[in-house]
Task: structure prediction
Amino acid sequence: MKKHLLYSIFVNGFLVCTLFGIIPEHQAITEYNGPATCIQCHEVEAEGMFSSVHYQWTGPTPNVPNISGNAGKGDIAFNTYCGSAVSSPRATCSSCHVGFGKTPSPTMSYQQLANIDCMMCHQEQYQRKLVDPYLSADFNRDRYVDASDLVILANLWISMNCPLPLGCGPADLTNNLGIDLQDYSIFASQWQDCTDPDAPCNFSGGFTQKTFTDYLDTTRTYTLPVHSEEGDFQYGPNEASMGISAVQAAQTVHLPTRATCLRCHAYAAGSNCGKRGDISTASTTPPANLDVHMSPDTDGQDMSCQDCHEYENHHVLGRGLDIRPNDRPERLTCTQCHPSQPHETAQLNLHTGHVACQSCHIPTFAKLGFSTEVGRDWLNPYWAAGLFDGQGGYKPEEIRASNVIPTYAWFDGTSNVYARGQVITQNANGYYEMGEPNGDVASSDAKIYPMKEHTSNSARHDATGQLIPHSTFKYFVTGDFEQAVADGMDFAGLTGSWSLVPVHTFQTINHGVEPSDNALNCGQCHDSLGAQTPRMDLQGELGYALKPGLSNGNCTICHDQEEVKPFRTIHDIHVKDKHYDCSYCHNFTRPERGLITPG
Result:
């Protein structure tokens, strides 16, 4: 596997590290005007990213049969962790979104491409913060509307039929594919207010103060970003936290690294290792016993995220069962790199058709001192000092666990995942199900996968049976779930009573493969081979129970009662010696093994 090389270069007197070598063309960058700097040369890449789930926060759902059309965090997603993002101001949940603050649009334009923050993925040292929005006529993003911007407008004056998507660039203020009097009128009105060199022009009211009363009847005033009617706000580089300037960051961009991916994905649901359970900041440079694939140790593979999550036109491969959209519809499986029967023994290779590699090679998750959230209680708030840039706020109680033994379930690559507006159904355990894998022991494409389970509580509208998209923002500032639900009902156009209900989801565990010596042994899953308390309920939950007439060891359904023998002996006699198909004794068949079937 290719190892990543680290180079050092001097930029304006500073020693700067960059991965994968120097890009000579980038040394010509002398000013950084936000993502527009990147798309001057990388329009094709920006167009690919524009249609991706990473940017749009929604996408096609070919592997979620209960949803037709697009779904994602940007529209109808609803999960057991944070609920729904769209019922809160966009800045509440967008710190990891690759957009620069503007709301994604399905229509490609210069403004949309210039909103794709390339350095979120292509610069490890990059940091950003909320800033006052730029005026639209500040074409060069220097916080003034002045002669330099007038030059840009004049050079494009009366240019019509500008080619899409870049059109006439930022000067096409009306996005009508031309520079005309409408654009000049907007420019002139902003020119009047923003030419004073001692007073950089900022969006009027970029930040505001709002006061809220929390569940303890305490009043607090927050400084918060103002959003436009379209939900837009503004990010800008946080050079004080980066250690290098924005120009230096742009000059030394690189391919995505584990660190750039994990600065968002490790903190999903608001805490390190909180949501997925199988990735954390430790995955940046993990020891081999945490993740043999990503480990830079001598016995690790030092793989990057995109070695498995392959990209095509900035669309990434892979989907957890609790995720709705797919960037690419095909499945990500271990056979991208490994043969379908990789073991030296035939007995182990028999398992690979119906047991996912992860089930044996990821014995536990949330390892090496890290914990993951397994439950959340919105009725029990706690104060989190770091929210709202250190102004503080409330989070719901998180029930966490470490060294968790997975749940095991069949998964055929498709799943039913709850979407906002749907009637939610209750499972056999009394929980309302928000993410459930499809497939069972009789499914030809299903395998047994390791799963994380997460439970929480949510508000269910009594009249319609749908979950209410409570406002995470209102909860953050008040700690009051009833206020959050009231805002969510207003957003969804619902009235009437609601009930607090328990909710549940499954999540696939895919990261954290350990060295082969740590793989599960047979007795940890098969009670007939030595396990006192096997981690898998093969006969009950996983469907390997005998037919009713055989369930008590009574084999007279086929022949006279014989001497009682161990399970393994009986199984070998019927399968290895007589070549009987599974359907003689079970309610499923294995046609791929070429055995004799009844009748």
About this structure: The first strand starts at residue 6 and ends at 11.
